[in-house]
Amino acid sequence: MKKSALSLVLAVFTGVTTMASTPVDNEVKQVKTTESTVTWKGYKVTGSHHGTIALKAGSLIFDGDKLTGGEFVVDMPTLVSNDLEGESKGKLERHLKSDDFFGVEAHPTSKLVFSSVKATGKNSYEVTGDLTVKGKTNPVTFDISIYGNKATATMKVDRSLYDVRFGSGSFFDNLGDKTIYDEFDLVVDLVF
């Protein structure tokens, strides 16, 4: 009887220890795409253009309150310019969606998948991820801050890595003041 009672106590204790050391499953928090915004800004020698593009889907992964991963899909046909009006606005948007730039008809989505997340402060992280644009995937590194159910990230993207060549001094000579810089900025405000 003592032997079986001791075995029972050991089994319970071992089970409790095993349960306590089992890691908590990561919690996936879906991004509210209609409340989140992605703002872009592209630069050229003679100025800049800016606008927005919508998220199609997105999620952040947490272990407790610590960010551990994420994945986002961008809806490329929603790309719009906010700094122009009328015919100029339509012309720029059509050009950005054409094969000269993002080839939206053949590539209706772009995707970002986090590959590593490193805490840099209480609510701040450095993220490295795989960004796919026009079917080409390259690593990007950016900062993201989390506050409650909101997150903000800023990112520089080198379009030349994704075969977006139009007006790029990396591919064409003698463009002069028609040069469009390779890097563009993204500012992402997420609600989840």
Automatic annotation (TrEMBL):
The keyword Oxidoreductase does not apply. Pfam families: YceI. Residues 28-191 form the Lipid/polyisoprenoid-binding YceI-like domain. It comes from the Bacteria. The keyword Signal applies. Residues 1-20 form the signal peptide. Keywords: Signal. This is Polyisoprenoid-binding protein YceI. It comes from Arenibacter palladensis.
